[in-house]
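#random but structural
TW: two for the price of one
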Amino acid sequence: MYINFISRLRSNWRPSKSHLSRVDFLHFYSTMSSETKPTFYKRPCWFYNLSGYYSYQTIRNWQLQLRQERMEPSGENLPDVLLMLEHQPVYTLGTAANEEFIKFDVKHPPCELYRIERGGEITFHGPGQLIFYPILNLRFHKKDLRWYLRRLEQVVIETLKTYGLEAYRVEGLTGVWLDEKKIAAIGIAASKWVTMHGVALNVTNE
């Protein structure tokens, strides 16, 4: 995938571990696959690298708007989008989440709590965790959600490898592990082959 740094690019990286991870993730994301048709590499992508900490609902609403625009016939040729950011503390419950296994009272959560449309179970987001939200029209890449999940995992694995960290997959599960602990959670949603949600990579959070 060719990342086209057009005028919509916001570049304000911070000199920290988070900065380095953002740069490396973008590099591997931009070369995510060699398995698809040649037009894959020419598809532009608007890249937003956001500093500060963002409320979950604000970013979710933005994703929904970006996805809806690309689902419309008039928006089919809009560029893909990649959002990189950190959230304010929040728990999200995916479609597979079972409240019986949550370790706090969902009526009185320790921070904001949302049940959302992505796959997966409960995930915590907060400062020190990098979030990557690709809004992709998979009709221009590959119409296969399993393929897409595996490619996102591979992007994380290749990014961590640049730091000498040998991350890996676990058979039958989605995400990326390091030293027997899950370092990246991955959950997506798609409608008419346009994706939202994405990757949560633990960098400096406790």
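TW: number two ↓
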Amino acid sequence: MTNSHLKEADPPAVAPSKPPPRFTCTWCRGGVDAIWVHVSGELDREGAPKLARTLHDARLNARMVVLDLRDLTEIDRSGVRTIVDASAAARADHRRQVVVRGPAAVDRAFERLDAAHRLDLIDIVAPTAVG
């Protein structure tokens, strides 16, 4: 008996993979009254509103917000403006926003737009292995 009525199964459908998001913004509690906001990717006019909302919400829920730019790959004028405006809003609310420096290209954007002096910038250096 042959199984001529059976045909070869189609290969399973594979959903097209989505490209990774160009910009991500997450936050977590960093102590009793601090929130860490971590950003990665490209911060431009598309991502700036998301960051603005996140920083605003963080400021409402903690006295100190730490904005970590170490995984940011690019930033444009709107991203710089968003961070500067959020820092000014934090000061006006008697709160603090600390910005962890990002890569050199990101740092240069703040300098080029004469914005670095308006931020509380800090460096965090990864500990070296003791061996």
